[in-house]
Amino acid sequence: MEMTSQKHSAINTQLRVACGNRYEMAMKLIDGLDYYHPKSPPHYYISLLAVIRSHRGGHEVSQLFTTMNAILDKNNTPCYAECTKFSTRTLIRRWGYIDKGSPLHIEGFPALYPIWRNPNIH
Length: 122
What we know:
Blueprint: H1 5-19, H2 23-36, E1 44-46, H3 59-74, E2 79-83, H4 86-91, E3 98-99, E4 113-117
């Protein structure tokens, strides 16, 4: 999704305020994710999903992925994400996600596990 330079500048300013002295580290992560992010085909991107530990693998997560995947399937659009843990990458397979290459290594951060889901066309 293309962004105007004004919008990019506004977001960068907000990021600087939110991250404070950790801004450079945040930019390193963002740049690394951008570097590894697949450029095609067009797809949805789960940029961040955080779930309270007690709800992981439970009803709320199941409802979320079932609903989201129905939208993806209806739009015939694949989906991409990076998991922060190997166990999450394994768990998410139940919703049709597969590995999208080797773990990603961005200096200063734990390995990330890229995943991909093609739409399920009936």
